[in-house]
Amino acid sequence: MDRKKDIGKLLTLLCPLIYFASYLTRKDYSIVMEAIIQAESLSKESAGLIETLSVISYGIGQIASGFLGDRIRPDKMVTTGMIITVLINLAMPFSDASLRGILWFINGFAHSLLWPPILRILTSTMERKDYENVAVNMNIAGIFATVLVYLSSSLLWIRVFRNWKLTFLVDAVIAALITAFWIIYSPRIEEAMETSEVPSEMKKESTTPSLHFKSFLIFSGFLFIALAIILQGMLRDGIGDWLPSFMANTFHMESDSAIFGSVILPVIGIISLKITGIINRRFVNDEVKASAILFICSFALSSLLYGIYEHDRNITLIIASLIVATMHAINLFLVGIIPSRFIRYGLVSTMSGVINSLTYVGSASAIYGFGYLSQHFGWNTCLFTWIIISLLGALSCFLAIKPWNRFRKQRSSRDIL
Rounded to two decimals, what is the model's pTM? Predict the structure, then answer.
């Protein structure tokens, strides 16, 4: 029992640390993108395309990673992904704009090797309550990393040293140290997975046959959930990545000031996830219904922002951050919790990969699309799309509530029909 607790404590520390390192080496380009645009006179489209390539490879890689994560050692996949991203981040400052697209595409795939295997590790060794706590902490760790990149880039590397390249180098060094820590303890993770019994609350039922995906997709409401996941990815990463440029263009700010101001985005995200985690543990029994309510909140906030965004810089920052905060909460419900529903089918990693890839379908389309809209039609048009996306997300979740609850309660694959 003590050994099981020790492994649980180790994973409670290691998994958020890896997610922290992942966000350092995945979000750094989007955070300093406005500085690169100003330093090298790049267009928004060309700069945004580099990030879009990364998001595309990340999304595609999630499917492969999810499939492999249920079949090979997940800790080795995490190690491989982290080593690759450290090397890519070390190379970025010494590459020209054309090569950066290729490197960042590879970086996206490297990060796709992390989330599904980690979920398999956690669901194989923890009870549902402990798993959900660690899932919340992982998301918070990622946002803490984003805060660190925002602050270090705006206050130190760009403002003091006038060099955005230091962002990549410092983040790579920190990620390398965390990766070394993970490698040292990998043998204990493997041993825990081999010796641990399947957690009682999440074990596979012997009476449950394999999942029939055709029936599942048609009758479970998952297609509506999939659309909602895509839409939350559009708002979470689309707004998050373009907020510094939006603020710089709208209020005529320097890149370091715009980046520094945007640090409120992840700070409010952390608060949102903490509150969501508490509410989830105590009150939420339906992750899809909770997501629908949050999309309604996003719709109200987006409508308010559309009407007043040019009048006050601070209010604009706060409202935009609240919109992204609602998306972080939705991400926790739809991307963090729903994959655990498939442990009885032995498909946690596979479904995690599929579900997470949907997020980055939305991210890729929004990162490029918002850049295109702002470049050719202005930010006013871009902000209007946020209202439409929020409304569609709410509608998708409401349509999925009843069939998804029926799927969750089924005893056999025929019960869903």
Answer: 0.71
Mean pLDDT of the 20-27 span: 93
Predicted pLDDT at 20: 95
pLDDT confidence of residue 231: 97
The answer to whether residues 38 and 130 touch, using CB atoms and an 8 Å cutoff, is no
- Asked whether the beta carbons of 390 and 295 are under 8 A apart, the reply is yes
Q: What is the pLDDT of residues 88-102, one digit of tens each?
A: 999 999 998 889 999
Write the CATH number of the domain with boundaries 10-197+211-416: 1.20.1250.20
Residue that the structure tokens 């984003």 belong to: 146
Q: Is 155 exposed, middle or buried (0-12, 13-18, 19+ CB in 10 A)?
A: middle
Domain boundaries, the chain: 10-197+211-416
Tokens in use for 315? 């209010």
Mean predicted confidence (pLDDT) in 195-203: 53
pLDDT tens per residue, range 166-188? 999 999 999 999 999 999 988 88
Count CB neighbours of 152 within 10 A: 18
Across 297-330, b (16+ Cβ under 10 Å) vs e yields bbbebbeebbeebeeeeeebbbbbbbbbbbbbbb
Q: Are 154 and 141 in contact (CB under 8 A)?
A: no
Name the nearest CA neighbour of 180 among 78, 319, 94.
Answer: 78
